[in-house]
Amino acid sequence: MTAEHPINDAQSSTDAIPERSKMYEEGFVAGLIGAATIAVWFLILDLIEGRPLYTPTVLGTALFRGGESLASPESVTASFEIVLWFTWVHGLVFVVIGGAASWLVRLAERDPNYGFGILLFFVVFEFGFIGVSLLFAQEVLRVLAWPAVLVGNVLAAAAMAWYFWQRHRQLTIWP
To answer: For residue range 80-110, what is the model confidence (pLDDT) as tens digits?
Structure first.
């Protein structure tokens, strides 16, 4: 064995660390962009309705206190504590989604056949979310119109996609 092999192995493992850090960073940032986009969307809708922070209060109430607490949604008043807790959970979920998207983008860069997987991931995730919400959170979708939820998710996904596109211009999603 020559002295080159350990150095090459060490070099390749140290090259992988910055690449992995970049992947995590991009996933984190993309997730925050997605979470902020949907939060701003619902803040705008809530302000138009004259009920600031109503949506995160309803979602947080359903998440932390159960759907039965939404029996009379018109009586739900904004709770800063629930909004903060829900925003924290919402941000974490989007960071995980951003991490998965970042991983898929890297796969697609190596093999364009994975590009279609990204598209499929988006479609399944969007409609899977609505489907699961219809099954398990009807009271929430009754309070928040499901088209507004769908539009918010599409806006968040578009913002995240734009972020990835700016950083990975050479990416093709169709082989």
So the answer is: 999 999 999 999 999 999 999 899 888 888 8
